[in-house]
Model the fold of this input.
Amino acid sequence: MKLKKICFVVFSSANYNSIKSLISEVKKSGNFTLQLIVGSSATNDKYGDVYNRILKDGYNVNFKIENQFSSSELSSMVKTTALAMVELSECFNQLKPDLVFTVGDRHETISTAITSSYMNILVAHTMGGEITGTIDETVRHSITKLSNLHFVSNYDSYKRVIKLGENKKHVFNVGCPRNDLIKKIIKKNTFTKE
Done:
């Protein structure tokens, strides 16, 4: 059986924390080849040194891309996203993933969905269908429309993704992946009443 290549794109601490448990399961599985691309604020010490945390957790990073424009100007989000698309297209050309996982709603996250879609690579998206009333919501719904598989965190989000026109056979209500981290922390600690 040919191993399927699953690529995770991590662009922030929030991205990594949201998908860490799934990355771990893919690595443990003998059925998949794990690929990791790290960029944006995840490569900047100022935002939590995510890149080195990933290495410390025992994962191999296939590509570290520098696409973060740090500025208070709104145009910095545009530039960060645009440069990510250029860099990701090169990474995907070399890695040739069968599936790309993208997380949530941050501005640079849409670059993963656009690049994958234009390169005919299947896209899996977590945390779709949520509402915030900000630009993040617009980005999130746009990513949903560019994605092929949807892993939502609750039933309301499940219904919203289907209302956006997605095939319910490809929408899975799996809960918030961060809950896996919470369960792990609780297992390691003993809590006592005061």
